[in-house]
Amino acid sequence: QVKFVESGGSLVQAGGSLRLSCVAYGDRRDTSAIAWFRQAPGKKREGLGCFNSVDGSTYYTGSLKGRFIVSGDSGKNTWHLQMNDLKLEDTAFYFCAAPSSISAQDRCLAGQILLTEYMGWGQGTQVTVSS
Question: Looking at residue 19, what is its pLDDT?
Fold first, then answer.
């Protein structure tokens, strides 16, 4: 099964930018689509966006579109989350994961990211935004 390792998180001032990376290990046949998530202290993990490794199409949650950009290079087993104009409320642990089925993949790209349908969870990378 696939396993992801996230990196790139750090302390950044509000208004700044960060580029997170996600690398896949193990069975990488399951990386046709990748989704990014975050979990802020005391809050539930939420889906941020989905990237189709086959055709490059993307989906974002409505509030993040324009500030966050997902991209990837499946040939290098690496995906990225570019975060711009960071806000205090973006402070969280950030994760990537893969849909566990074709139907989950279809839902991801149609704008429905259901947490229980994802696999390959890593430790995440911490992003802290300061004022």
Answer: 97
74-106: pLDDT as tens digits = 788 899 999 999 999 999 999 999 999 999 999
Burial of 37 (0-12, 13-18, 19+ CB in 10 A): buried
User: For the chain, how long is the longest CA-to-CA vector?
Assistant: 41
d(CA 5, CA 28): 13
CA-based Rg of the chain, rounded to a whole angstrom?
14
Residue 130 has pLDDT above 80, yes or no: yes
The terminus-to-terminus CA distance of the chain in angstroms comes to 40
Structure tokens at 55: 């055709």
